[in-house]
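ok trying again, last paste got cut off:
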Amino acid sequence: MKHLLWIDCTAGALAGVAMLLLLDWLAALYGMPTDLLVFIGVANMLYASYSFSLAIRRTRTPRALNALIVANGVWALVCVGIAVCWADTATLFGMAHLLVEALFVGSLASLEWKWRGQLLAPGR
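nice, full thing came through this time. structure:
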């Protein structure tokens, strides 16, 4: 579990970069407006920056780690909320992306909570 924060920040960065680079194509594929996908891409990049800042630290405070865990949980709920709001117009691909992202970040939150003791330990 010592690499969990690296997995977290890498996944967020890759998702954000891919979303922003493929914006027009994904908007058509997902059946969602580009502004919404920009929001998702930027949110992923900001989140990845924060999780990266924790991954590179030798020690982490409980408050900083808890903020990351809460952010993962909140983002999972946001993804579900977006899926519900756009259910009438989004394509299967768009819905799948939102729901898989919700499941992924929700799982990260759960794992980070479960392994928070190790993630707070020096050198982790």
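cool. The chain has a mean pLDDT of 95. The helical segments are 4-21, 23-30, 34-55, 62-85, 92-114, 116-120.
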